[in-house]
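S1.2 Input.
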Amino acid sequence: MSVNPMAYETQFFGFTPQTCLLRVYIAFQDYLFEMMLVVEGVMLKKLDGIPGCKISPSQIRKCTEKFLLFMKEHFDKLFAKMEEMLLQLVLNIPENVLLPEDRVQEEYRYSKEEFQALQDELQQLQQQCRAEAAAEQALRAELEEQKVVRAELEKILQCFDGLENICREQGAGNFKESFALLTQSSKKLQDVLKDVEEKSKTMRQHDQLV
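S1.3 Output.
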């Protein structure tokens, strides 16, 4: 069998020419074996009807096998010639023939350098797309965080609005002014608490010395 891969023919036919010829060879060979068995069976029947025939079935089988070997040798030689003819004249696509699906390659031809440049450009575009996708994902995450922060700020504003309404109902005046006074009072209380803690510490030290 031919060792030529014949890839272009395989693309066109959908099967390798060598596989096709191998199946034809096996089919012919099987038919030859079956034919020899039929011939052997006919000979056995004919000889069985001849009185005094001294030819045994084993001798017939030896003759059949010898004839089968003779036929197979001649068949292999003939098939080799047929295979060569089929591969060259029937199952072969000439070099000047271009399949329809490959005509685009004839219209847009590129050298190795141009093809490599296109590959490099494609790789750069892929990297840019991945970078833009990552940036978009980061922006989406940041927007989600901003939505959460905005919701919390709205809750705080609602709380301040409620406190301001309460202050107005109680006649406490402006909430901002009240909040500033509350902050100042808190700071004064912290100063007083700190002074008390220092005096208490000084008294404990004095008691320990006494």
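S1.4 Remarks. The radius of gyration is 51 Å.
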